[in-house]
Design a protein that fits this description.
Layout (H helix, E strand, L loop, with lengths): L14 E4 L5 E6 L10 E7 L5 E9 L4 E7 L9 H7 E6 L1 E3 L5 E3 L10 E3 L3 H6 L16 E7 L2
Antiparallel strand pairs: 1-2, 1-10, 2-3, 3-4, 4-5, 5-6, 7-8, 7-9, 9-10
Length: about 150
């Protein structure tokens, strides 16, 4: 079920984005906890495949940045740093772009949705990852994803 057609009418936690080729969909969802270390969570679906990536955005300081991490098939429970490294597809800053073209850190899930999301180097990271290849992802996404709809 979809709602608001404008990003300003949608909370970031309900925003859905797509890359320019409509090969990837990024769908935010509420964290469900005020105590969470992350400021946002999302899933990225590779269209026309069963591949789903898990993503989180965490605030960092000095400098003030929204740092994202996108993972695939991470083990659950008590995991090591090596386990997380092995399942991490991409990590880096997450930027929002306003309708006026202004770049900023992605805001927390309760803020109005960004018009566009920028994940620098995401496309090349997909090509270098375990989800790339025949029967998997065969189109590298653009690093900019555009607001598509508001999920309710």
């Amino acid at each position: 079920m979809t709602g608001a057609a404008l990003p300003a009418d949608c909370k970031q936690s309900n925003a859905v984005y797509a890359d320019r080729d409509d090969a990837y969909e990024l769908r935010f969802s509420p964290l469900g906890s005020d105590a969470a270390a992350a400021s946002n969570q999302f899933k990225i679906s590779v269209v026309k495949t069963s591949i789903s990536l898990d993503g989180y955005v965490m605030p960092s300081e000095d400098p003030d940045r929204a740092i994202g991490i996108i993972m695939f098939n991470c083990p659950g429970g008590d995991v090591t740093g090596a386990d997380l490294d092995a399942c991490t597809i991409w990590q880096g800053p997450v930027y929002s772009v306003s309708a006026a073209g202004e770049l900023d850190n992605l805001q927390a899930e309760t803020a109005s949705a960004a018009d566009r999301i920028v994940l620098p180097g995401f496309g090349p990271a997909i090509r270098e990852s375990s989800i790339w290849g025949e029967g998997k992802a065969t189109v590298a996404p653009w690093d900019v994803l555009t607001f598509k709809e508001c999920a309710k």
